[in-house]
Amino acid sequence: MAKKLSILFIEDSEDDALLLVHRLKRGGYDIEMLRVETADSMTKALKEQSWDLIICDYSMPHFSAPAAINTLKKMDLDIPFIVMSGVMGEETAVEMMRAGAHDYIRKDNTVRLIPAIERELHEAGVRKERTRLSEQLQHAQRMESIGTLTGGIAHDFNNILTALIGYATLLKMKLREDDPLKKFAEQILFTSERAANLTRSLLAFSRKQVLAPKPANINEIIGSVQKLLTRIIGEDIELKVVLSDCDLIALVDIGQIEQVLINLCTNARDAMPEGGMLLIETSLVFVDEICRETYPLEKAGQYALITVTDTGTGMDGNTQKRIFEPFFTTKETGKGTGLGMAIAYGVIKQHNGSINVYSEPGKGTTFRIYLPIRESSEEEELRKPHQQAARGSETLLVAEDDSDVRTIIRSVLEDFGYGVIEADNGEDAVRIFAKNRDRINLALLDLIMPKKNGTEAYRELKMLDPNIKAIFMSGYTEDIIRQKGPIENGIEFINKPLIPEELLRKIRNMLDR
After folding, report:
1. pTM beyond cutoff 0.85
2. Distances 275 to 278, 279, 311 between C-alpha atoms, Å
3. What is the structure's pLDDT at 131?
4. Which of 48, 147, 229, 279 could make an SS bond with 206 (beta carbons 3.0 to 4.6 A apart)?
5. Any residues with CB less than 8 A from the CB of 102 and at least 6 apart, and which?
6. Arithmetic mean of pLDDT over the chain
């Protein structure tokens, strides 16, 4: 089978170019060619399509090989460049190689042409692969750098947000319904949640965030974020939402799924600069073993399918292959980070789902998200009335090294009737528990603390009282948490920033077990 080869000839003699094409066809190549003989026509040809090879005459009336090499360099293109001449001597050939030509061949010695082309195509492939691997390494290093940065700031930032959210919640609770200050407290909470979502999104990019999953109806998630999506895409784009008739209950981190939808709709908006339609659909699908491997998914079974379709510019095959790569973007410099789709991919993968893209240039784009459906018992749990933050009279040990976080936790717990004993590190927690174990009903332990971390402290607490109940909390990233040891089964975990209502529910549920 003939090997396809696209060649840009920079040659003033059509006969010479056709003679070389004839020789290459006899050598087993299927040639696509274009002949040019000026700088402008060369530039135009390079802009309009990609070429496997350039064969250039050394000297022409209106152009030359040195000038052609300079044009190639200015366009920052790496294409095998072979110079041919009927008069070129050895000194000139060496000069051409130094200038950037990959080989030179005399026109009276074309027997070297095919071996030279095969060698240069091979070396070009090696260079391309080396460049690809280098870019992948740079992407990985950039991802790791951001992951390290976000991991470093997440703990302190989430502690600050815990105090901010806690005090705003207490303020809201203490104000009368008709108090004009109440709306300010609510705005503080709303803005704080946006800040918390920003941290979670950055961690999602590196797939290091600890998810806070709970059974949720996918239809309700989309419905709750629909108004926001309408504002994001603008008035020029029609948003149509078609939801499944059946409940689609999945175990998800609601904030992260909302972020995925926002990222997809932002991407769709940018693909429709002159307006269009954005369609979001949900359905219940069964994925068999064959389809499971194609998508890919961890196991066969029922899945909630979210389909997001736009009527925008679409994507070519190469763009589709790279769309989920971090830092890959088709947008102008300054108009995109290249993280939106990488974040979406990371979030969905952490939910044991999959996200796939289908597109054609000029025909729009469709993203399909598969999320595993939960069992019916969990659906029934979801339909139970929302449990209010319950009061209590038990005594809790709160071990936390950040004094602001300890103070707000104490304020919240005491407001709801609980007694609180504080410790500012793991070693202190063990010492205090040993003296007060008959009084303490539950330990609330920060996972990362000085002297002893939460896991180490909990092991020693269990040695003192095998029945001690505990809840771990942390604002660190998942990889750092795992370094401190696994969280035992039956132990609750809560992410920072702490939401008072969620903290109180977890405490009440754990105490009532």
Report:
1. no
2. 10, 13, 9
3. 80
4. 147
5. 80, 81, 82, 120, 123
6. 84
Q: Tell me what pLDDT residue 385 has.
A: 45
C-alpha span between 266 and 237 (Å, rounded): 11
Q: Is the pLDDT of residue 483 over 60?
A: no
- Tens of pLDDT along 269-327? 999 999 999 999 999 999 887 777 777 788 888 999 999 999 999 988 888 888 887 66
Distance, in Å, from the CA atom of 416 to the CA atom of 404, rounded to the nearest integer, reads: 19
3-108 is classed CATH 3.40.190.10: no
Query: What residues pair up with 307 in beta bridges, in sequence order?
Result: 281, 368
149: which residues sit within 8 A by CB, 6+ positions away? none
Among the listed residues 444, 457, 511, the one whose alpha carbon sits nearest the alpha carbon of residue 484: 457
The span from the CA of 394 to the CA of 413, in Å, is 10
pLDDT band at 336 (very low <50, low <70, confident <90, very high): low
pLDDT at 479 over 80: no
Whether the bond into 486 is cis, omega within 30 of 0: no
- The CATH T-level fold of domain 214-382 is Heat Shock Protein 90 (3.30.565)
Burial code of 488-505, b = ≥16 C-beta within 10 A, e = fewer?
A: eeebbbbbbbbbbeebbb
DSSP string, 16-53: HHHHHHHHHHHTTEEEEEEEE-SHHHHHHHHHHS--SE
